[in-house]
Amino acid sequence: MTVRTATADDAPGVHALLDSVARERRWLLNTEAYWGVDGQRHWIQAVELGGGTMLIAEAPDGQVVAWADVSRPHAALTHHTATLGTGILEGYRDVGLGRALLSAITDEASRLGIEKLDLTVRGRNERAIHLYESLGWQHEGRSPRAYKQDGEYDDKVMMGLWLGEDEPEA
Q1: Could you tell me how far CA 47 lies from the centroid of its own chain?
Q2: Interacting residues of 22 by C-beta distance below 8 A, sequence separation 6+
Q3: Which of 2, 7, 141, 166 is the 20 to 30 Å CA partner of 38?
Q4: How far does the chain reach from its first CA to its final CA, in angstroms?
């Protein structure tokens, strides 16, 4: 498996990955890729132009099988933070790829001067929550019944990881 920075040329593979993970209807907030390939190309470029980055994992055959991105907000008071997004293609989970990709994206975020990472995850995604906890992410909040799919509710779990040099004061 190769982990590298995504480029605009990776848009078709990122789109196929995002669409596949979304159509599982268990992990993401959309049930299909909401942009076409051109939209994915724009997203990859926008993340980088905004001071963030996107990493992808490629299988030996060149297929994009995982991604992680950190996107910075545009507001001046939150520019030291970034939001994490990630996904792994079915068949490539539970082999350490998520842990490796999260470690790599955290290193990249630190290199970019990002001091704090944030994420939201579905409350039922216990596997991801456990992985984040094992990597030092802290629970920062929970919004009950924030998501509704097919008549069933799920909570939004908010987590954060401090990357700055000093621990923030409570």
Answers
A1: 12
A2: 28, 30, 31, 32, 33
A3: 2
A4: 40
